[in-house]
Specification:
The complex is a heterodimer.
Chain A (H helix, E strand, L loop, with lengths): L2 H25 L25 E5 L1 H9 L3 E4 L3 H6 L1 E2 L3 E2 L3 H11 L6 E4 L7 H11 L4 E5 L2 H7 L4 E2 L3
Parallel strand pairs in A: 1-6, 2-4, 2-5, 5-6
Antiparallel strand pairs in A: 3-7
Chain B lengths: L8 H23 L1 H11 L7 H21 L3 H24 L21 H18 L14
The chains are: A alpha/beta, B mainly alpha.
């Protein structure tokens, strides 16, 4: 058995695969970026703008939204939501149910703040993109999420 | 030794199953890289930003490794890759299960309604593929192998 030869074969297969994958991704119509881009951070917030918005916000900006009674959406699993979430936030168990719940409270043009567990989780971005696909136009991703909100002792609630 | 049985049709069937499974698993991911990136992201194992790169390249590694196993080219290299991929899959699924997150497997289909959530059965299936890889790697003959020609 010649392990060196096997590693050489691995390298050949890997190289061919990588070259093919990058070439196909470059040429295809539904290509994706090589690295997923971080969303832009909002400098100032203009709630009355007619432009579609998809930005990240800081904890201070999230608090501002909270004080203006904006709707918050929790992108985490139900277990985490039940343990504690931003007061009044909607949970995302079934996406269609979430859309129905949002639309029973406000129009698609009103701001929504989406958050998940901590700055490292991607669920809030995923949910924001799904909501954008569903026609919602003012989406703010609160990256600090439950970690920062609970650490700041801002209004929260839990389901026992 | 059980390895004495690793020859002829046993090896050919193992190659065919492994190759077929990996080619089949790659197709939906190659067609929908964006959806596959979202599934990788759900596993929470990669730092944010790298899931796209993996979503673009991994399915093609699966495809070429599968093709190599079936057509009889670079079988040892392809088997090593299949083993490495299965170890990574088992690790990713186990850590997600350990943390109690219920997510789509993304093993064969990247559709969000495929209904194939991860579970113990997914890990057992991957262990099955590791056993098949063991048969292929320690095979005693080189039937229907075209490059490199050893015997």
């Amino acid at each position: 058995m010649n392990f060196k030869n096997h590693i050489l074969q691995v390298n050949i297969i890997l190289s061919i695969s990588i070259v093919f994958s990058l070439a196909v991704n470059f040429l295809r119509p539904n290509s994706i970026t090589l690295l997923s881009k971080d969303l832009e951070q909002a400098d100032t917030i203009d709630i009355d703008t007619d432009e579609p918005v998809l930005l990240t916000i800081s904890i201070d900006q999230a608090k501002e939204f909270y004080e203006k009674n904006a709707l918050f959406l929790d992108a985490r699993d139900e277990v985490y939501f039940n343990k504690g979430h931003i007061k009044g936030a909607l949970k995302n168990i079934f996406f269609m149910e979430l859309i129905f719940n949002i639309e029973s409270l406000q129009s698609k043009e009103e701001p929504l703040v989406v958050y998940c567990g901590d700055p490292g989780c991607g669920d809030s971005e995923d949910l924001a993109y799904n909501l954008q696909d569903a026609g919602f136009t003012k989406l703010y991703v609160f990256k600090g999420g439950w970690l920062e909100w609970s650490a700041a002792n801002y209004p929260s609630e839990s389901i026992e | 030794m059980i390895k004495e049985y690793f020859k002829g049709p046993v090896v050919l069937v193992a190659r065919l199953i492994l190759g077929g499974v990996f080619i089949y698993a790659s197709i939906d991911k190659i067609l929908n890289p964006g959806d596959f990136a979202k599934i990788i992201n759900n596993y929470h194992v990669l730092p944010f930003g790298l899931e796209n790169l993996l979503a673009i390249t991994l399915p093609w590694v699966e495809l070429f490794a599968g093709i190599c196993l079936i057509i009889g080219v670079f079988i040892d290299g392809a088997t090593v890759l299949v083993v490495l991929m299965n170890i990574v899959f088992i690790f990713a699924i186990s850590q997600a299960l350990a943390r109690g997150i219920s997510i789509e497997c993304g093993c064969f289909s990247v559709a969000s309604d495929s209904g194939s959530n991860i579970g113990i059965q997914t890990i057992l299936r991957d262990i099955g593929y590791l056993l098949l890889s063991y048969v292929v790697y320690y095979r005693k003959d080189n039937k229907l192998e075209f490059f490199p020609k050893l015997i």
